[in-house]
Amino acid sequence: MDGVHGLQVGDHNAQHNLFLSASSPETMMAGQPLRIRPGQPRNESAFGPVYEAAGGAAFLGEALGEVYDEGPGLVQHFSGGPGGEPAVICALYEHAPVAVAQEVWNALRMVSRGASGGGTPGLGFPTADQTGQPAFIGTETVLIELTGGSWGSGSLIQADGRWRWRPHVRFDSQAYQDQDTWSARTEEMDLRLRVATRIPSHSDGLRITGTSRSRMLAALSTTGLVGVITGLAARYGLEPGELSWQETPEPVGYNDTLRAAYQLMVTGPDSRTALHAALWFTLPHAYQPARAIVDLSIDFDAIRPGSSGATPAYVPADLKVTPSELVGFLSSAWQAAMVLPLVGIEDVIDLPPTGPPRLEFYIQNRRPENSGGPRILRTLDMVDLSAFGPTRRAQITDLAVGITFPLGLSARETSRIARQAMTRMAEDYAFTDAETAEI
C-alpha cells in the first residue's frame, strides 16, 4: 500500500464519492453525504482503501474533520456508522494507514499525556504491517504493536480493563551510565556483579515510609536473591547463617523519604567479608528517573585466604563464578530491583512512564592489571566464560550489556532474557562461540 506523504491522488472518477469536500457543488447536487474530506493534499489515495476495508460509511460513518498532523504522523476522525463505532484512521509519515477505534486511540494518547514525550509522540502509532493485522483495530484487541515513537518500539496492551504501554525487550552495547553510581566500601574486594535499573516516570508526592519499607523487605524474600547468595556461599564452603537485609548506615547509604539502602554480608574463615550484597534505591524526583542498583561483591582471598601471593593473583578454578550463577544473579537481582520501588508505590507497574525502563548488567574487576594495587587480578580468572569459547580480545577488564525491558516480567521471563543477555555480552566482547553456547 502507498505511504502517506508524496502520494498521488488516484483515479478521480473512481474515488469521486469518497473524496468530494463538503462545500463542493457536485456534492450538493448529487446529495451525497460527506465521507472522507480531502484534508492535506494527496492523502486520499492512502486513506480511502483503509476506509473501505474497515467497513466504509456503514461502519466508520462520516469524517468529523480534515486530516491533521499529530505526533509522528497523520490522523482523521470519523463519527461511526450504524454498524460500527467512532474511530480514527492514522498513519505514520511514509507508512500505510490503520483504522482504530476511538477508545483505543484515546487510550494511546492518554499514556503519560502531559509528560515529556507522552502520548503518540513517545509511543508512536499502531503499525499496519504486523502479522494478522485486522482491517479495523477494535476495543476487544488485547495487544497492538506500535512503531514510530521516540521511546522505541513497543505495544499497547489491555489487561483488567486498563490499557498500558509495554516496550519491547532490546539489547544494546551502551551500558556505562551506572558503572560507578553509588558504591559500598568494597573497593578492596575483587569482583563486583552489578544490576542497575532506571525507570523513567513522573510521579509527584511519592515518599518512603516505615510501612512501605516493610512491604519492600517482605517482597524481597520472593525474588530469590538471598537464595543465590546463600547458594554461592555454600559452594565456597562458607557458613552464611540466616541472611537478612539491614539498613546501610551513612555515609555509604542513606535512608530517608527519598532513598533506601540495604546490605548483607557473609564472612570468610578469618572473619573478613567474603560476600557483600548491597541495594540502593531512589524515588523519581526533579526529572530524575526511579533508580535501583543491586550489587554482589566477592573477595576470593577472604573465601580462601592465602591461596597465592603471585601477581596476577591466583584464583582457584573451583571458585570462579559460573555462567549459571551469573544468570541466576542477573535474574534475581533484576527481580529485586523491581521490588525496591515498593518503598514508594504499591505496584511498580503503576508508575506513569516517560520512557522505557532500562537495565545495565556489569561484571567488574575491582583489581585490574592497570590499577597499580598490591593485589592484581584478571577478570577471566574470576568468572568462567569458557562456555562462550576464547575471546579475540587481548585483554578484558569489565564486561557489560544494556537491556530495555517492560515492567511486570516474571522470574521465568527475566531468567530467559538474562541468558540471552549473557550471549549478547559475549558476542560484544568477541568470544568466538557465543552464538552456539549453551548456558
Give a brief description.
The protein is an alpha+beta fold. The protein has helices spanning 16-19, 25-30, 44-53, 56-60, 102-110, 120-123, 210-220, 225-235, 300-303, 323-339, 411-428; strands at residues 68-70, 73-78, 87-92, 98-101, 124-126, 136-137, 143-148, 154-159, 162-167, 170-172, 191-199, 246-247, 259-267, 273-282, 290-298, 358-365, 399-404. The chain is elongated.
Give me the strand/helix succession. HHHHEEEEHHEEEEEEEHHEEEEHHEEH
Strand portion, in percent? 15-25%
What characterizes the major β-sheet? 8 strands, antiparallel
Q: Please count the beta strands (DSSP E, at least 2 residues each).
A: 17
Rg, rounded, reads 28 Å
Uncertain stretches: 1-34
Which structural class is indicated by helix and strand composition? alpha+beta
How many separate domains make up the residues? Answer: 2
Average per-residue pLDDT, rounded, comes to 87
Distance between the termini: 44 Å
How helical, in percent, are the residues? 10-25%
Largest beta sheet: what is the strand line-up?
10-17-16-11-15-14-13-12
Number of helices: 11
Outline, from the CA principal axes? elongated
